[in-house]
Design goal:
The protein is of the alpha/beta class. Helix content is 35%, strand content 18%. The protein has helices at residues 17-25, 37-40, 48-56, 74-83, 126-129, 131-139, 159-175; strands spanning 3-7, 32-36, 60-67, 102-109, 143-144, 148-150. Strands 1, 2, 3, 4, 5 and 6 form a 6-stranded parallel beta sheet that branches.
């Protein structure tokens, strides 16, 4: 079964790594359905029913986005707030439509990996910084998977590094 990739990037045209990941994923339409939120909702008015119907069609869902200001793009937060509704995603006998679905994050970060954690500039590891996502997906009974993170893209975005990230990302997706 295909994997749904929900890509959230407010400036994908000027993206370095997320744009390249999407280009590669689009080469495999039999494996991946790429759903770009900013492209579909440039006015940020989310069609909740359409999004819920889309989610129901897939057993594996990956949210791909750049991680900045220690968080996700605002449209992803809005999507979570509006799409994961009471009675559909949680809270009733007819809810839990996301239950059992494998859900993962694929994140690009500007900082280097060693800048996070107890010995880094930023004292928190990425696993702690992304804990709210994990808790949210656990709350709706999704099968939250370990995340994919590609670090250091702000200061080292050579073609070689970007191409290396593509292979690593595809390997991650295959292992889901």
């Amino acid at each position: 079964m295909k994997t749904l990739i929900i890509a959230i990037h407010p400036d994908i045209k000027n993206s370095v790594i997320n744009k390249r990941w999407i280009e590669e994923l689009n080469k495999f339409p039999d494996k991946y359905h790429v759903h770009q939120l900013h492209e579909i909702y440039p006015d940020e008015k989310i069609d909740v029913a359409a999004e819920q119907k889309l989610i129901e069609q897939y057993d594996k869902i990956v949210f791909q986005f750049p991680y900045y200001w220690f968080n996700c793009p605002a449209l992803f937060k809005k999507w979570l707030d509006e799409v994961l509704t009471h009675g559909w995603a949680y809270g009733s006998k007819s809810g839990y439509k996301v239950a059992g679905k494998k859900v993962a994050l694929a994140i690009s970060l500007g900082v280097d990996e060693d800048e996070l954690g107890s010995s880094g500039i930023y004292k928190y590891p990425l696993s702690e910084l992304t804990r709210p996502f994990e808790l949210s997906f656990e709350y709706v009974k999704a099968a939250y998977q370990p995340l994919f993170a590609y670090y250091g893209i702000e200061y080292n975005s050579s073609s070689e590094r970007i191409e290396n990230s593509v292979k690593l990302y595809l390997d991650f997706l295959e292992a889901l």
